[in-house]
Every structure is written in structure tokens, then in C-alpha cells.
Amino acid sequence: MTVLDATPRASAAVARKAALGSFVGTAIEWYDFFIYGTAAALVLGPQFFPGSSDVAGTLAAFATLAVGFVARPIGGVVMGHFGDKIGRKSMLVVSLLLMGFATVAIGLLPNYAAIGVAAPVLLVVLRFVQGLGVGGEWGGAVLVATENAPAGKRGLYGAAPQLGVPAGVLLANLVYLPMTMFLSEEAFNSWGWRVPFLASAVLVFVAMWIRLGLEESTEFKAAKDAPADAARKMPIIEVLTRHWKTVLLAGGTFIATNGIAYAYMVYVLKYGEAELGYSKTAMLALLIVSCPFWMAGMAYSAWRSDLVGRRNIYLKSSTALVAAAALFFPLMDTAVLPVMLLAMIMLGFTLGCCAGPQSALFAELFPTEIRYSGASLGYQVGAILGGGLAPMIATSLFAATGTSMAITGYFVLIALVSLTSVLLLRVPSSYVPGSPEQRIVRSVQEGA
Questions:
Q1: Is the dihedral of CA 36, 112, 69, 267 positive or negative?
Q2: pLDDT, tens only, 345-404
């Protein structure tokens, strides 16, 4: 049995630096990932898939969004394997470089009118590279934060990379907002949408400077210095052969959080404009205002998980998500801005509560020597079944039925799938507050 918190902890300064590095790097990588989603909702259809209907163009753009999710498990497997063998830091640098290169290249990519069919083909390739980068990002960022966390604060510090996700969304939409407010439709479609992609070069430089100064945790160093066994030689094989049930259940807990979040962040922008009659600017503003509540939910639930247990908080949050999923579109369909804002805040806060304890929970499900591989794969399984499909499914359901009730049914269904996965997932007792193992760990820490 591996007891994480029994390992000597990093100094407070190192822990804070690790948390900051995880937050900033993750925010920038997710900024890159999300500006694509925003562009897919607002402009990529006519730019790269012209000549089709508006619905078909939107579906095609959302399909390229899904390509990134197909690549994410591959990135998670490859970087997880080398992250367990070589180190977390090196893989975080690789993931950042991949994401930065692909994002800037998309900003420079000529559209269909300029180079024909090569444009959508190259767009798909670059989106795939983005997916590879972000696939290895989450696991590494989570482990840098949690493995360096002070004793008893693994949940709180593990929320740092989680907070980077809505921070990336907020940054992406803050960059897009002036583009939609101050540029004409023609200028935005011609060059304005490219600015957020090109701006990524500066942000990646800042994140790289921070990440190169990170240190590996004492926990990872101890595992790396231990005699090599089968798990150390082939971490991903160990995960797939001995921990596959945990991977599937961990992924299942994340399907709804990720799927509903992507519909909330991406599909709703298109829905508000096309079906509710609001401008791009108004919908972006609603999303921007709701993001701090998303972050607040993360911080609160992560803090609580250190006190009462990860599974306890995850279970309550997943139950609340079922209710929030059922209410979201009925509230949005009122087309009354204050009510729509309430719906966005409600869903954002609930999604945050689900995501807050996730970093520490996923890390605690796997031994140190295979933790990067196990946590990354579980996360990416949930991502591809959730967020990768959600915007396309939502668009298709509305096109087929003409009502958001079908989307609501889909939301509730995946929320129930995730709730069931949480119920079936068993967290090692060494990570449950008040358990005999935790009392032993705390006595070791206090005597250290």
C-alpha cells in the first residue's frame, strides 16, 4: 500500500511554486484549447467548411473540436509513461511546446478560399497536435501540485491546475470579447478570430519560464530511485492490466463534468446566438461573468475534501449536477438575460464543485510509480466520452428535434452515469480522513 502523505513533504516555498506553475501553465494550455472551441462555435464553419448549410458547417467545426479529444488519450498514455519513468517536469515542458506550436500555426493557417481542401485537412492535423499536448498536461500538472502539497492540503493544492481550466476559459473569452465588440463582422471573420491564436506565443513563453524552474517532488524521486520492478519498467502496461477497472470508473466520474462543461463553454455560445437571438458579445459576456463562480466552486470543494474526504464531496457534487443539468436549458430558454446568467452561474458553480477534489482523488487512486499514467488515462477516457462528443451531440439533437429538451435529457443521462461511477469507485482507506491509516500517517508527519 502506498501512503502518499507519509512521504517527506516539500518546503512551503516549493509547494507554492509548484502550485503556481501548475495553475499558470494549465491556464495557458487550456486557453489554447478553448480558443479553438470558441472559434469553432463562432467562425470556423464558414472559414474552413464553406458551401454547406449553417448546421452542417457548425457540425463539421465541432467535429474538428472532437479530433483533439481523440488525440488526448494518446498524449496521456505517451506522456504518462515517460512522466512516470523520467519525470513530471520534462513532460509538462513537452506538452506546452506542442500546444503552443499547434495554436500559433492555426492562427496562421490559410482558409478554404485560399488553399482549398488542404485547409480543413491541416486544421484537423493541428487540432490533433493540440490534443496530444493537452492530453499529457493535466496529469503532470496535477501531480506536480499534489505531490509537493503540504500535509493535509493535497486537495486544496491539487485544485491549482483545476482552477487553470476556467481561468483559461476566462482568458480566452476576454480576448475574444473585444474582437466581437469592436470589429465589424467582416473584419472578425477575415482576421480578428486569428488574434487570440497568435497571442498564444507570448503566453507560452511566460509559462515555459515558470515551468523550467519547477522541481520534481521528493515522492517521485524516492519512487524513481527504488529498485526497478515491472511497474517502473512499463507503467502503462501495469495500469492497463491491473488497474483498468479503476481507470474506467475514474473516467466515468468525469464524463458528465467534462461533457456538460464543454456544452456550457462552447455549444451555448452558438445556441444563444442562433436560437435565442443574442449577439456573440452578449453570450461571451455571460460566460465571462459565470467563470469566477466556476472557480469558486472548485476552491470550496477542494478545501472541503481535505476535511471530510474526496469521495464524500465528489458524491454530493455529482448528485447536485444531475439537478443542475435538468434545470439549465429550461432556464436558458426563457431568453431573459438575468435568468440566463443565473443558469450559467448555477451550472458553473456545480461543475466547479465536481472538479475541485478530482486532482487529489485521481492521484490517490494509483501508486506513485504508475500515477501519471493512471491518472492521465482515467481523465482522458472521461474527456473523450464527455467533452469530445457533447457539442456535436447537442447540435445534432437540437437539429433533429427542434427543442432543447433532448439536450437536457442527454445532460441528465451522462450526469447519472457519472454519479453511478462515483458510487462504484472505491478510494483507498489511507486517504479517508479519520481512518486508521490516516491517523498513522499524521503521527509520522508530526514526529518528522
A1: positive
A2: 999 999 999 999 988 898 888 888 888 888 888 888 888 788 767 777 888 898 899 899
- In terms of Cβ atoms closer than 10 Å to its own Cβ (0-12, 13-18, 19+), residue 209 is exposed
Q: What is the DSSP letter of 11?
A: P
- Looking at residue 444, its pLDDT comes to 39
Distance from CA of residue 118 to its chain's centroid?
A: 30
> By C-alpha distance, which of 350, 337, 255 is closest to 294?
350
Cβ proximity of 422 and 292 under 8 Å: no
Which triple of cell numbers denotes residue 24? 499558470
Taking the C-alpha atoms of residue 87 and residue 128, their distance in angstroms, rounded to an integer, is: 24
Report the Cα 109 to chain-centroid distance in Å: 25
Q: Which residue, among 40, 41, 60, has the nearest Cα to 49 in the 3D structure?
A: 60
**68-93 exposure pattern, b = at least 16 Cβ within 10 A, e = fewer:** bbebbbebbbbbbbbbbbebbbebbb
What number of other Cβ atoms are within 10 A of residue 360's Cβ?
28
What 8-state DSSP symbol labels residue 28?
H
For the cut 80, the answer to whether the pLDDT of residue 433 exceeds it is: no
DSSP code for 194: G
Taking CA 127 as the corner, what is the angle to CA 381 and CA 413, rounded to the nearest 5 degrees? 35
Secondary structure letter of residue 403 according to DSSP? S
Total residues belonging to the chain: 448
Give the pLDDT confidence of 126-171 residue by residue, as tens digits. 988 988 888 887 788 888 888 888 888 888 888 888 888 888 888 8
Distance in angstroms (rounded) separating the CA atoms of residues 3 and 74: 29
Closest CA to 257 of 341, 342, 357, 333: 357
How confident is the model at residue 4, as a pLDDT?
Answer: 47
Q: Are 356 and 297 in contact (CB under 8 A)?
A: yes
- Residue 320, all three cell numbers: 447536485
Q: Which amino acid is at 359?
A: S
Calpha distance 58→322 (Å, rounded): 27
Q: Strand, helix or coil at 150?
A: coil
Side-chain half-sphere exposure of 388, counting CA atoms within 13 A: 20
